[in-house]
Amino acid sequence: MDAAVLIRLLQQVKDGTLSPETAVERLKSLPFEFVGSAHVDHHRALRQGIPEVVFAEGKAPEDVVRISRAIYDRSGRLLVTRADEEVHKALGIKDAVYHRRCRVITAGGAEPESGLVLVLTAGTSDIAVAEEAAITASFLGSRVETLYDVGVAGIHRLFAYVDRIREARVIVVAAGMEGALPSVVGGIAECVVIGVPVSTGYGTSFGGLAALFAMLNSCVPGIAVVNIDNGFGAGCLAHRINTGVKTGS
C-alpha cells in the first residue's frame, strides 16, 4: 500500500462508498503480515516510497512463492530479483513476466513518469546487471533508456551518444574489468552518475573489487557507487533521484 492507495481508501470511507469495517479489513496487513517464514512489509511503499522487493537467491522456492503472493495479492505489484524460471512458473500470477537475462520477475508496476534514467554498460558482459537496474527503475515508475557496449576500449562509441547523455536526469553505468567508464561518463554528464561495479573480468579483477575500487577512487566529483553486481540498488537510487522520491512520500 502506498500513499495514493491509502488516500483513496480514506476518501471512500469519507464519501460513504466504503464501510469503516471494510477499510479496517484492508488495513489489517499494516504494517506487516506474517506468512510463516517471513514478515511481509506491506507498509514499506507508504513509509519509503518504494515497496518491498523479494530477493529470491538463497531462499527456498516455496518461501519465495509465499512471500511474493502475499505482496502481489495486496498490491497488484511484484518485483522479485535473482529468481529462476521455476519460481516464475510456480507463482501462478498471470501477468508476471520473467526477464531471463537478469533473472528478475515483474508484475504490475507504475506508469513511467517524466525525467530520464539512462543505463549504460561498458561491455555486453555487463548487460545482466544493467538490466536489473533498468527494470527496477522502470518498475518503480521512471522512464528508462539503455545504451550498451560503449566502454573505454572503443571510446568513440560513447561519444556518438553525447546528446543522449546530456538529456538524462540520472545515469547508471555498469562496468566490470577496470571499471573506468563511470569516470568518463561523469566527465561529460551534467547529472548524477551511479557506478555499478560488475564481477566481470580476469583474475586481478577479484570478482569486481578492482572495478569497485576504481569507481570509489574516481577523480570526477559526485559519482555515487553501489555494491558489486547490485543493479537493483542502482535502479532504486536512480529512481529516487529521477523522481524526487522522499521517505514517506
Summary, kept brief:
The protein has 249 residues and is α/β, with parallel strands linked by helices. It contains eleven helices and eleven strands. The longest helix has 15 residues, at 61-75.
The biggest beta sheet is recorded as: 5 strands, parallel
Q: Could you give the order of strands across the largest sheet?
A: 8-7-9-10-11
Strand content: 15-25%
User: How many DSSP helices?
Assistant: 11
CATH fold assignment of the largest domain: Rossmann fold
The H/E string reads HHEEHEHEHEEEHEHHEHEHEH
Q: What's the Cα radius of gyration?
A: 20 Å
Second-tier CATH architecture of the largest domain: 3-Layer(aba) Sandwich
Mean pLDDT: 88
What is the total tally of β strands?
A: 11
Helix-strand category = alpha/beta
Count of distinct structural domains: 2
**Share of helix among residues?**
25-40%
Unreliable residue stretches: none
Tell me the name of the CATH class of the largest domain.
Alpha Beta
Query: What would the principal axes of the Cα set say about the shape?
Result: globular
| Euclidean distance between termini CA atoms | 12 Å
Explain this structure.
With 249 residues, the chain is α/β, with parallel strands linked by helices. The chain folds into two domains: 3-107, no CATH class; 117-243, Rossmann fold (3-Layer(aba) Sandwich), CATH 3.40.50. Helices cover 40% and strands 16% of the residues. It has helices at 3-15, 20-27, 44-48, 61-75, 85-91, 127-140, 156-159, 162-167, 181-186, 209-216, 231-243; strands at residues 33-34, 39-40, 54-55, 78-81, 97-99, 104-107, 117-121, 144-147, 170-175, 192-197, 223-225. The strands form three sheets. Strands 8-7-9-10-11 form a five-stranded parallel beta sheet. It has a four-stranded mixed beta sheet with strand order 3-4-6-5. The protein has a two-stranded antiparallel ribbon with strand order 1-2. α4 (61-75) links the parallel β3 and β4. α4 packs across α5. The longest helix has 15 residues, at 61-75. It is globular and about 65 Å long. The relative contact order is 0.12. The model has no long low-confidence stretch (mean pLDDT 88).
